[in-house]
């Protein structure tokens, strides 16, 4: 089988993927250990018997709906390639907006930052890679997630971030300039839970009661005791939750509340600041 033949099999993924050609390109680059440009330059290159066997195994898994990130064992986020496992959510491009907003709001000055529900460590590690002067703490209640985040940290030798086990802010002490989180925010009755990659991701990292707002509310309440005066709390949330999150933060006394859109133009990141002393 040639590379061009392998890519032509993208039609077999139309029912399970929004980007079948991209999926096969990622799988082939992984198996061939080549960049995407190689696929374009050498479409007539034939796969070896071992490569073909591995490709067919990966294709079979993807045809059944398993996410490419779990098949390959990694996913790109920001400037990093992060190990992923079924213990955590798969990092998504829209979450990079949270990183962008945090970096725009806070300069290189030393800051203390917490990332709650860190999962792979994606947000914490992206911030650590851009702001070496920041002291960053990532928390997750799942031991396997904490171990995964530590492996990703070790790969990039980012020494300004620490990962600890615990529920939201419970394992932390002291006060923070910035608290960020991509918490569960999907309503348990949402039909999208039966579609696409989320079928394979841990449900506990996806759903929250109170129409998806329960964990956001809990974090917002807890954060008032952990933020410095004028410190900032920043969430990722659902595309239709911006107004509800703004109202929640206002009710709790946060100010300078604002919502930022994701790459598709949907409300995705909302932040608020603790009132000054």
TrEMBL record:
InterPro entries: DNA_methylase_N6_adenine_CS (IPR002052), HemK-like (IPR004556), N5-glutamine_MTase (IPR050320), PrmC_N (IPR040758), RF_methyltr_PrmC (IPR019874), SAM-dependent_MTases_sf (IPR029063), Small_mtfrase_dom (IPR007848). GO terms for biological process: methylation. Residues 6-73 form the Release factor glutamine methyltransferase N-terminal domain. It is an enzyme of class 2 (transferase). It catalyses: L-glutaminyl-[peptide chain release factor] + S-adenosyl-L-methionine = N(5)-methyl-L-glutaminyl-[peptide chain release factor] + S-adenosyl-L-homocysteine + H(+). The keyword Membrane does not apply. One of its GO terms (molecular function) is nucleic acid binding. Keywords: Methyltransferase, S-adenosyl-L-methionine, Transferase. Its EC number is 2.1.1.297. Residues 103-190 form the Methyltransferase small domain. S-adenosyl-L-methionine binds at residues 117-121, 140, 168, 182. Methylates the class 1 translation termination release factors RF1/PrfA and RF2/PrfB on the glutamine residue of the universally conserved GGQ motif. Belongs to the protein N5-glutamine methyltransferase family. PrmC subfamily. This is Release factor glutamine methyltransferase. It comes from Neptunomonas concharum. The gene is prmC.
């Amino acid at each position: 089988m040639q590379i061009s033949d392998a890519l032509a099999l993208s039609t077999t993924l139309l029912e399970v993927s929004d980007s079948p050609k991209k999926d096969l390109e990622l799988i082939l680059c992984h198996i061939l250990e080549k960049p995407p440009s190689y696929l374009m330059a050498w479409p007539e290159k034939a796969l070896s018997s071992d490569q073909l066997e591995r490709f067919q195994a990966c294709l079979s898994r993807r045809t059944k709906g398993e996410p490419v990130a779990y098949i390959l064992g990694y996913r790109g986020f920001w400037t990093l390639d992060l190990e992923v496992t079924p213990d955590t959510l798969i990092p998504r491009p829209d979450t990079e907006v949270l990183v962008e907003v945090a970096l725009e709001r806070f300069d290189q000055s030393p800051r203390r930052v917490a990332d709650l529900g860190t999962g792979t460590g994606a947000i914490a590690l992206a911030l650590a890679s851009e702001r070496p002067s920041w002291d960053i703490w990532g928390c997750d209640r799942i031991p396997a997630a904490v171990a995964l985040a530590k492996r990703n940290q070790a790969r990039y030798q980012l020494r300004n971030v620490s990962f600890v086990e615990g529920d939201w802010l419970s394992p932390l002490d002291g006060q923070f300039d910035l608290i960020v989180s991509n918490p569960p925010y999907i309503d348990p009755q949402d039909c999208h839970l039966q579609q696409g990659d989320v079928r394979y991701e841990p449900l506990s990292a996806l759903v929250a009661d109170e129409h998806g707002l329960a964990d956001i509310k809990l974090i917002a309440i807890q954060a008032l005791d952990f933020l410095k005066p004028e410190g900032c709390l920043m969430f990722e949330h659902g595309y239709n939750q911006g107004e509800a999150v703004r109202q929640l933060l206002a009710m709790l006394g946060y100010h300078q509340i604002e919502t930022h859109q994701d790459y598709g133009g949907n409300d995705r990141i909302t932040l608020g600041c603790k009132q000054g002393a």
